[in-house]
Design brief:
This protein is mainly alpha-helical and 167 residues long. The chain has two domains: 75 residues; 77 residues, Orthogonal Bundle (Arc Repressor Mutant, subunit A). The chain is built from four helices and three strands. The chain has a three-stranded antiparallel sheet with strand order 1-3-2.
């Protein structure tokens, strides 16, 4: 015969099991991150060796050029404020709430920021506005939104959902 565990004890047992699982998951993630860090370190060391060989080749050229005078060029990686799916979802949600009316790019951007609980500072304001503009342009090309302004204008953009029509 089995005895029934009281609910408070069952909660403690369940909580302990979940914590033990979380510890195992965290340790696994840590070992994966360590392996990735070692791999990145090996890659960086190989790149340093390649750079040193390029410096030797440059020093052999008849035109004297000091390799340390060449500035580094970083790759252009723009940080995303949110995934594209969230940006699209919030943008279309804003236009749906307008019920066929026109929304400006600024209104849509403010709605997206409010829905995603982003803290919009000086740096992220421009990035969010650009992201919303590009997303609206892509949605327009796909026929999911319509625009009232000319494509090459300096006026505020106004957007709406397409009119329902016969299919």
């Amino acid at each position: 015969m089995q005895t029934k565990l009281p609910s408070s004890l069952k909660w403690l047992v369940n909580r302990r099991a979940r914590l033990a699982g979380e510890i195992q998951r965290t340790l696994r993630d840590a070992s994966e991150a360590t392996a990735k860090a070692l791999d990145l370190e090996r890659t960086a060391n190989q790149l340093k060796i390649d750079l040193a060989s390029m410096d030797r080749v440059l020093s052999m050229h008849e035109i004297e050029l000091h390799p340390e005078s060449i500035p580094d060029v970083g790759t252009h990686r723009q940080a995303r404020l949110m995934p594209f799916a969230h940006l699209t979802r919030h943008t279309l949600s804003c236009l749906r709430k307008a019920k066929g009316g026109w929304c400006s790019t600024t209104e849509i951007m403010s709605y997206v920021a409010a829905q995603s609980t982003l803290d919009i500072g000086d740096d992220s304001y421009g990035l969010l506005r650009l992201s919303v503009r590009k997303r609206l342009r892509t949605l327009y090309a796909a026929g999911k939104v319509r625009r009232r302004h000319a494509a090459k204008s300096n006026v505020e953009g106004y957007w709406a959902l397409p009119l329902p029509g016969p299919e």
